[in-house]
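User: My instructor asked us to take a sequence, write out its structure as tokens, and then describe one feature of it. I'm not sure where to start. Here is the sequence I was given:
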Amino acid sequence: RELLELFDRQAAILVARMREADAASTGALAHRLKGSALGIGAAGVARAAEAVERAANASERRAALLRLAQAVALARETIAEMLRV
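Assistant: Let's start with the prediction itself. The structure tokens for your sequence are:
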């Protein structure tokens, strides 16, 4: 439970920071989020974070970050449902 709650908070913070960060910082934040996502089994978030890490230019990074934000939103909804039980 605590791990899911931590991921929920951390994921939202990291995505927000990525939106404001430069390319190098965005990649580092995405890498951190990918590791956390793998730790709780959020494979969709991990894949999306890896795409942000690998984005070759600003356009790709923006598109990948949008997909990551959507994956994080879905994971957070799932976590909220799990924690209600």
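For the description part of your assignment, you could build on this observation: The longest helix spans residues 58-84. Try explaining in your own words what that tells you about the chain.
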